[in-house]
Specification:
The protein is of the alpha+beta class. It has a domain of 61 residues. The chain is 25% helix and 6% strand. The protein has 7 helices and 4 strands. The protein has a 4-stranded mixed β-sheet, with no helix packed on it. Helix 2 crosses helix 4. The chain is elongated and about 80 Å long. The N and C termini lie far apart (78 Å).
Amino acid sequence: MKHTRKSIKRLIHNLKRIAGGRVNLQDQDLSGLDLHDLDLQDANLEGANLRGTNLRWTYLEGADLRGANLDFTGYELSCRTIGIIADTRLVSQLLYHLCRMDVKGCPEWDELRNDPRVIALANKSHVIPEHEEPEIEPLKAQESEITAIYRLPCSLTGLDAEVDNCDPPAIIVVVEADDPMSTGCVDRYLTTDGRLIDCSIDSEDFAQWFELEELEVDE
């Protein structure tokens, strides 16, 4: 017999009378149920069918969701879902959704998004074969026009030390003259030791950093 919201509330109530009682809903069909605001902390939901289930405001801290079907589920990002137990199914599904986002203003993600390990894990998601979604492909580098190369008054090693405590961390990529602008970077520079780099810090900010009116342009 399929559970209802009422039967699960009764189960939770009865187990609270038992010291250390744990709600066991392993492999149960809970699809489409309204479970909002129920206390399922530390519950065993391994392999449960939660497709289309309303989990808004549901207490899920420590709940075991390994193998659970969370497709089309109202699963919220809040303190009530911190500490769940997950496996490849859920991690790859969430990562797949992240990879399909059109992320702006987050250069750190631009680098992670093209990491082969991230792409490989996202492509393990069941949403690809089951929902006929496309596989994740590496992002193509945006070939922005490089209009100038600015001279930095420091070596590459010195620059690393200068920007070490930037928040968010600065992106520094050593490049060749014919390379397109690196992902997440905005300007190209030449260091005093002859290294050509792209960086996420623009030339105006660097000029202020080194207390200069402006950086010299390499001819």
